[in-house]
Amino acid sequence: MIRKILTAGFMLYSFLNVDAQPNFQITFNAGTSALAGTSPIYMYAGAGVDQPGNFWQYNVGNITNPGTGLMTSLGQNIWSICIEPYSYFSQGPGGAIPNGSTIYNISIIFHNADFSIQVDKDPNNAPINLVMTNNPPTSSWNMVTGVYQNCTLNINDFQVTEGILSNYPNPARTNTVFIYTSKAKGKAKINVFNTLGKKVFELNSELKNPGTHSNEWDLKSSSGNLIPAGVYFYNLEINGQVLQTNQLIVTGN
């Protein structure tokens, strides 16, 4: 059985939210900061999960993920960015955020293109943080706001690299969820191969919008049987173009 993952929930960022959940829009007023008059501005940010007080467990930005974190100018010294927090922070060096985790905090550094100018503290010298468990999320500085809403800032240049592909859990025992990004609408295909190069399964999806998508796979082959334990490889095709290949380990029952 192949099941498309649908939108559900608000503060629990699991794979059940990727396709249709409203984006999270972060806006920064640089007017009274060291970045006033600077262009472009990037956001380097870290998410804390598991317990309040964690901040930089999963970090993403132009340093660790070149091309990410670019903000959009909304006018003089006003900059904004739209992300889907769970998938956004799962692309960093910390790997995928575990299924079912809560994002308690987002800590932010705003910076220019070469990182020579940074704003990481408010006027009271406190780190810039967004408390995600408040409704709406609250910032330590009134010049930084975060809100859940449908927004399209940079959506055609979604804040993850084209073709970012991962799966969770990995190793997998009974099922896994593929998560991937696309800058285009159209057809997506995930092909799964054994170590001999034989295709054991393919998963097809129709992408109605650019952005982040996910699909669950029950580890059954095209013939309907559970695949044996072992090492497998899978790739992502968007509109016929192979973008990335990853490894999947199946442990079996």
How is this structure best described in words?
The strands form 4 sheets. Strands 3, 4, 7, 8, 9 and 10 form a 6-stranded antiparallel sheet that branches. A 4-stranded antiparallel sheet has the order 1-16-13-12, with no helix packed on it. It has a 4-stranded antiparallel sheet with strand order 5-6-2-11. It folds into 2 domains: 154 residues, no CATH class; 89 residues, Immunoglobulin-like, CATH 2.60.40. With 253 residues, the protein is an all-beta fold. It is built from 1 helix and 18 strands. The longest helix is centred in the middle third of the chain and has 5 residues. The two termini are 18 Å apart.
Class inferred from helices and paired strands = mainly beta
Tell me the β content: 35-45%
Q: In angstroms, what is the radius of gyration?
A: 19 Å
Separation of termini? Answer: 18 Å
Poorly predicted runs: 1-21, 155-161
User: What is the count of helical runs?
Assistant: 1
What sort of overall outline do the alpha carbons produce when their principal axes are compared? elongated
Q: How helical, in percent, are the residues?
A: under 10%
Mean pLDDT: 80
Give the total of beta strands: 18
N-to-C series of helices and strands: EEEEEEHEEEEEEEEEEEE
Number of domains: 2
Largest sheet: 6 strands, antiparallel
